[in-house]
UniProtKB/TrEMBL annotation, chain A:
The lineage of its organism: Bacteria, Bacillati, Actinomycetota, Actinomycetes, Streptosporangiales. The keyword DNA repair does not apply. SUPFAM superfamilies: MetI-like (SSF161098). Gene3D superfamilies: MetI-like. One of its GO terms (biological process) is transmembrane transport. Belongs to the binding-protein-dependent transport system permease family. The chain crosses the membrane at residues 30-52, 101-120, 132-149, 184-205, 241-263, 297-317. This is Multiple sugar transport system permease protein/raffinose/stachyose/melibiose transport system permease protein. It is a multi-pass membrane protein. Residues 95-313 form the ABC transmembrane type-1 domain.
TrEMBL record, chain B:
Keywords: Cell membrane, Lipoprotein, Membrane, Palmitate, Signal, Sugar transport, Transport. It comes from the Bacteria. The lineage of its organism: Bacteria, Bacillati, Actinomycetota, Actinomycetes, Streptosporangiales. InterPro entries: Bact_solute-bd_prot1 (IPR050490), SBP (IPR006059). This is Multiple sugar transport system substrate-binding protein. Gene3D superfamilies: Periplasmic binding protein-like II. Residues 1-25 form the signal peptide. SUPFAM superfamilies: Periplasmic binding protein-like II. It holds the Pfam family SBP_bac_1.
Amino acid sequence: MSTTSVELPARRLREQPPRRAVAARWRRRLVGWAFVAPAVALFLLMGAYTIASGFLLSFAKWNGFTPSWRWVGLGNYADLLYADPSLAADLRRAVGNTAQIMVAVPLLTVAVSLPLAVMLNSITRLRAVLRSVYFLPYVTSGIAVYYAWRYVLAPDGAINLLLGSLGLGSLRQPQGFLGNPDTALPTLIVILVWSSVPVATLLYLSGLQAIDRGIVEAAHIDGAGSWHVMRRIIWPLLRPMTVAIALLGVRDALHGFQIFLIMTNGGPGGHTDVLGLMAYRLAFMKGLAPSLGHASALGWLLFAGAVLLTLANARLLRRVQ
Amino acid sequence: MTTVGKRVLGLAAALVMGLAACSSGGGGGGQEQAGQSLRMWTFKKSHADALNKAAAQFKAKTGISVTVEAVTPDDVFVSKVQSAAQTNGLPDVLEVHASGEDFEMGSSGLLQDLAADVTGDWKQRLLPSTQESGVLTQRKIDSVAADSPIKNGKAGQRFSVPFTAGAFGIVYANKDKLRAAGLDPDTPPKSWEEFLKALEATTGKNQGGLSLGLKISQTGFNWIYQPLAFAYLGKERFHALFGKGTTQGFGSPDGVKTLETYAKLTPYWMPGATTLGIDEADIAFAQGKSAFNVGGTFTLAFLVQNGMTPDKLLAFPIPPSAEGTHKQISMAPLALTGLSVTATTQNREAAIKWIDWVTSPEGAGMVAKESLDLPATDLGTQAEALLGKDLAALQKYFTGPPESAYEAGDDSFFPSDWDQVKPGDLTVRLTPLKEYGPQQAGTELDKVMASMWKSTK
């Protein structure tokens, strides 16, 4: 007993510092958690909850009003892919149009932005001004610009007027460039390229400025012409950038729907219907039909497509590097 | 008092104050005030303005104030109602599309059943063809798709009271342009063929052709083709075009003939008609870019808002073909919108009182005159005095022999998975795009109908 009474204060003395340390550690942890809690809560609410809820919705029928969902298993996916002849036909048409955009937009973006970036990189005077000018479409991009493009492309719009005054009347489109089924999709592709060129040009420009000037100068000293320098040195060094630009273009083509909604609503006669617009229409343009599940399922199919493309891109990048 | 004691007391005080604040917001003292104040949403700006003016009169009579908010366009309205339903933020009264949206919202538990409130007297003041609009029938429940929320409703429930009425397929002509093209500005064409000749004259004299918002592709099919085909074939053969497994479909001689007649419009569409939305086409007509414009009775208000004066307009229904079954057509008026009381309102009595007044001849007349939209309330001999002569003149196309009355609201012969965009896209490909001839368009329409019937579960 006496031993205990002597040892206890000593043990307390030995234990006190660790207790304080534990308390301090917990305080630090709590402060840390308090700082990150808002972000975590926001993510749980806006990210995890909506993602999980959207995923579950793809297995249900719901119109946004009824208190409960009706579970249909993989029915929504089956409807989109083959079971519902009406929906499956729409999906096939939208896939065809989206595929054309996915190929054309990245290719044309690279074809336009690379020469622009090389040009901007090679000049010293007015570079900043020109860079701002080329970046304008990105800054002004959005719904207002799409409306402005509609006026420009209308039957009595600026482009038809310009073609007429240049003596190129045969190229005029009496129904407007968006009213003719042969020109509607190509016109939208051109506008998509127009809005994606600024970022691509900036990316290429930063890539060009990162290339060691010594390599280019050495090639010139060895007698290589500008074309050979571009083809054999600059292009290979910019390949990772090209892959990134192409991937951005593909992603925009896969998910974008605003331009199609505002400029053509998928018309004329369904010639510009794309997957993003189809998902939007299933979610919000079907009145109160229980089609939110179909919209969600299409969204997840698009997500799967995007994941596959990302994996393909990562593989390509590894090979390039 | 110790520090801990002070903290406990402070916490208790805060709790009490919080609870008091909650209770005053939820009922109690607020109940009395809330009873005098209603909130209403509509999807039409012109209705909101007119209703707010009428609300001032209503407040003077009853002491109940009503604030009406416009949420436009229609799809945004639906989205807002969807999210408000999830967050318990619905207003007291909604204006909804009649005989469709009201059933879906009501059967989903968002609206109250008004069957016991809308009694015989109240019904009697409505146009006869609209009296039962808003009442769910067993036929409607049976006809909808298995996954439709309407299946949860019960026959006899009333989810809306008819508010505005009208018809689709009304042609508006610019009298100045008719005059400039050498046409009589006061005499509407009697037949489809005369209409085509008038279009030829205005187009030939550079006065413009026909505008319609074909960017919303179903407008051509719903507003022109359907009434034209109905008058051409008569009710039975017209319904047969849409039948399940029919041999009398769009690809049959009947169907092809009607498509051929419709496709005669091809040379006369306003340039770029396929790129215009409904409002944009109306604006183009108001700006003088076309001589003719197709819409509904509700289009008049929008044209006036955009600078046209009613005395410069000649209005008539889609004229029937001289070769068809019916040589005359009338447009059976259908309830276009209805007023509903939300399930979550704390002010049911006041809401019913407001709907009752605004669908009375006095209230409806006031709203109609302000909004230039026809009411579902039968104004009888007072119509011209209450509505003005231009709006009242549109009503004359509502009456005619029953066999030639086109009912745009009759969807009993459609597949339950009916998606009007699909036939709309195909008819746009027929005209103005000319990608299909009438026979091919008919065959494609039959395929679309067959797939919709197949999708109907």
